[in-house]
Amino acid sequence: MKSKRLNDIVDIILSNDIDTQETLLIHLKERGYNVTQATVSRDINALSLVKLPTKTGFKYALPQKAESLISDSKGLFDELILSSIISIDHALNTVCIKCKSGMAQAVCARIDMVQPVNTVGTLAGEDTIFVLMRTENDAAMLTAELNSLYKEKMGNT
């Protein structure tokens, strides 16, 4: 539910000028979410939203890297996130992503935001993420895709 709400928040701020948490809360309630202002505040932090100046005040926006992430046709991650990853492997239907210390939750938030096909759920600790996939084949495919993207992006830096 949280990852869907985060995706909806991204959609809302990309299609509306959202100037306050209260305005965002109204838009979320229109979409059927019964959340508090504290939840909206945590979601804003999870998405690393920023406030940008407009002609009439300010509005919430995605950080520049996140905007390119969403429009990236290949993609799941930007260079900042990719540089946090140490290794990607899988066993049975679980993908294991090892990250630099303290970065697993940020990487996991990106995975949750894009919801790869056939993902059942994710779990992040301090430096490790487990992504539970529906089948072993799904896990192998996600691992291959992430490794390919990782090698491509990190080879270009």
Structure explained in plain terms:
With 157 residues, this protein is an alpha+beta fold. It has two domains: 2-62, Arc Repressor Mutant, subunit A (Orthogonal Bundle); 73-155, 2-Layer Sandwich (Gyrase A, domain 2). Mean pLDDT is 82; it is low at 65-76. The strands form two sheets. Strands 3-4-6-5 form a four-stranded antiparallel sheet, covered by helices on one side. Strands 1-2 form a two-stranded antiparallel sheet. The chain is 49% helix and 22% strand.
Task: Write a compact overview of the structure shown.
With 157 residues, the chain is of the alpha+beta class. Helix content is 49%, strand content 22%. Helix 1 packs across helix 6 (104-114).
Q: What's the CATH class label of the largest domain?
A: Alpha Beta
Order of helices and strands: HHHEEHHEEHEEH
Strand content: 15-25%
- CATH topology call of the largest domain: Gyrase A, domain 2
CATH hierarchy: architecture of the largest domain = 2-Layer Sandwich
Number of strands: 6
Distance between the termini: 35 Å
Helical proportion, percent range: 40-55%
Please tally the helical runs, counting DSSP H or I stretches of 4 or more residues. Answer: 7
Taking pLDDT < 50 over at least 5 consecutive residues as the criterion, the unreliable ranges are 65-76
Q: Biggest β-sheet: count, sense, barrel?
A: 4 strands, antiparallel
- Overall structural class, as computed from helix and strand content, comes to alpha+beta
How are the strands of the biggest sheet laid out side by side? 3-4-6-5
Radius of gyration: 17 Å
